[in-house]
Write a structure and sequence with these properties.
56% of the residues lie in helices and 7% in strands. The chain is built from five helices and two strands.
Length: 117
C-alpha cells in the first residue's frame, strides 16, 4: 500500500497552491507532481482544502491524469512566471489575464489549460 503524497505549501488558493507543487529549496527547484498519482493526490488535497470545488475533479482516471499532467506543468510555469513578474513590479499582459479568467470559468480539462499559455 502506498501512502498519499503530501503537499507542504497549501494556502487554500488554487492558483498559488498549484505553483507551490514545485518548491525551491537550497536554490533548486523540486517537483512534487512527478507522476499521475501525485496529481491525483494533489486534487484530493485541494478538494479537502477547498470544499467548494466541483467533486468531479476527483473522478479523473490515471490515464486522464497522465494526459493532463504535462499541461498542468505548462500552466503552472505560466502562473509562476506571471506571479514572479507581479512580485517584481512588472505589469501583466491583459490578454493573459482575459484568457486565464475564461479558463477558470470552464470545467478543468487539459484542453482548457493548454489554451492559457
Amino acid at each position: 500500500m502506498c501512502s498519499k503524497r503530501t503537499f507542504p505549501l497549501v494556502s487554500g488558493f488554487l492558483s498559488i497552491d498549484l505553483v507551490n507543487t514545485e518548491v525551491i529549496s537550497h536554490g533548486r527547484r523540486h517537483e512534487l507532481m512527478v507522476h499521475e498519482q501525485d496529481l491525483l493526490d494533489w486534487l484530493h488535497t485541494m478538494y479537502e482544502q477547498i470544499p467548494s470545488l466541483d467533486r468531479e475533479i476527483l473522478n479523473i482516471s490515471r490515464d486522464e491524469a497522465t494526459e493532463i499532467l504535462p499541461h498542468i506543468h505548462e500552466f503552472r510555469f505560466t502562473l509562476r512566471e506571471n506571479f514572479e513578474g507581479i512580485a517584481d513590479g512588472n505589469s501583466i499582459n491583459n490578454n493573459w489575464i482575459s484568457n486565464l479568467e475564461k479558463t477558470l470559468r470552464m470545467p478543468l480539462t487539459y484542453i482548457n489549460l493548454s489554451q492559457v499559455n
